[in-house]
């Protein structure tokens, strides 16, 4: 047993110790990976529901690990958020996405995910503006995706940051819409440009009546509020047909394309534009 400093003793737990050590190793590995920029961005196209044209692509980070191969963001973003490493990693993502997108055809925008921790940083708006200036990407070609987690923090501060970002010409999307708690009241208080309907509502389309009703209602509500609607996680032709018939603005999902490495994404764009 070890003293915890307050005069009481805890029993040594080997399983907990192993988890703590694994976490510490992963954290050190992540820190190293950030220093040597061991990451890459894959891009998943968003298409216009009416024309089928590519209007944007979402940047999704992957860790190109020397031993573990390509590591999914689900396996390191949460730790990056807990440890504050999301700061430098998020900056890399933002700069890289802007720099790469600046060379795309001008009608294709880029969407970048921001974690709540990045949003709490008061310098965020300046960081974003600097990424635009350095890359030469026009502000109206950048969309920032945030989740409800961002809005749980200090409301005044969040609103101030959102307002500064929009004043800079950047647009803001509410990601994973419908999975949090107070989605509807947030829509009234914060200036979003776009709502992304969460994949969990799409999974059972078009057969499931409840899912269909929810997706239909979100599309109607968002449209009435002047927000564009993207439906994500569209995997089948039936789901694509349903969501476009219901009047969503953009579709994203495996039915259109999986996230692709930059070169493949650009080939995909060329092939689509030629078609
Ligand atoms: P997200 O922002 O909701 O991104 C969509 C996720 O759904 C991506 O997973 C994408 O590959 C996956 N997806 C797209 N279409 C389909 C589909 O038709 N079916 C299914 N089953 N899945 C689909 P990915 O790339 O593994 O990213 C997972 C999450 O990691 C993202 O969820 C986002 O929250 C986070 N993430 C990824 N990149 C970044 C980043 O650069 N910064 C931050 N802060 N978070 C990131
Ligand atoms: Ca997203
Ligand atoms: Ca999402
Ligand atoms: Ca998600």
Automatic annotation (TrEMBL):
Coiled-coil boundaries:
none
Q: Which UniProt keywords apply?
A: Membrane, Transmembrane, Transmembrane helix
Report the domain of life of the source organism.
Bacteria
Ranges for domain EAL come to 23-273
Query: What's the protein here called?
Result: EAL domain-containing protein
Q: What organism does this protein naturally occur in?
A: Methylobacterium longum
Q: What is the lineage of its organism?
A: Bacteria, Pseudomonadati, Pseudomonadota, Alphaproteobacteria, Hyphomicrobiales
Task: Give the residues of the full protein shown.
Answer: 511 to 785 of 785
């Amino acid at each position: 047993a070890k003293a915890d400093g307050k005069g009481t003793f805890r029993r040594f737990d080997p399983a907990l110790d192993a988890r703590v050590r694994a976490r510490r190793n992963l954290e050190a590995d992540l820190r190293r990976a950030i220093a040597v920029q061991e990451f890459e961005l894959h891009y998943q196209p968003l298409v216009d529901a009416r024309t089928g044209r590519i209007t944007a692509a979402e940047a999704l980070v992957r860790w190109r690990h020397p031993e573990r191969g390509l590591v999914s963001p689900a396996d390191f973003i949460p730790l990056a958020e807990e440890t504050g490493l999301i700061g430098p990693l998020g900056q890399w993502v933002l700069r890289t996405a802007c720099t790469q997108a600046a060379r795309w055809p001008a009608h294709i925008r880029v969407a970048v995910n921001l974690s709540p921790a990045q949003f709490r940083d008061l310098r965020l708006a300046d960081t974003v503006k600097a990424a635009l200036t350095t890359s030469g990407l026009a502000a109206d070609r950048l969309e920032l995706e945030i989740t409800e987690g961002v809005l749980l923090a200090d409301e005044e501060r969040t609103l101030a940051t959102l307002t500064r970002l929009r004043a800079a010409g950047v647009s803001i999307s509410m990601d994973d819409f419908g999975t949090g708690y107070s989605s509807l009241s947030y829509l009234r208080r914060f200036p979003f440009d776009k709502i992304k309907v969460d994949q969990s509502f799409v999974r059972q389309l078009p057969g499931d009546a409840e899912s269909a009703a929810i997706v239909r209602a979100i599309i109607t509500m968002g449209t009435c509020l002047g927000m564009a609607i993207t439906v994500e996680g569209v995997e089948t032709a039936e789901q694509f047909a349903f969501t476009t018939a219901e009047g969503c603005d953009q579709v994203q999902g495996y039915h259109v394309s999986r996230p692709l490495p930059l070169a493949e994404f650009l080939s995909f764009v060329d092939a689509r534009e030629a078609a």
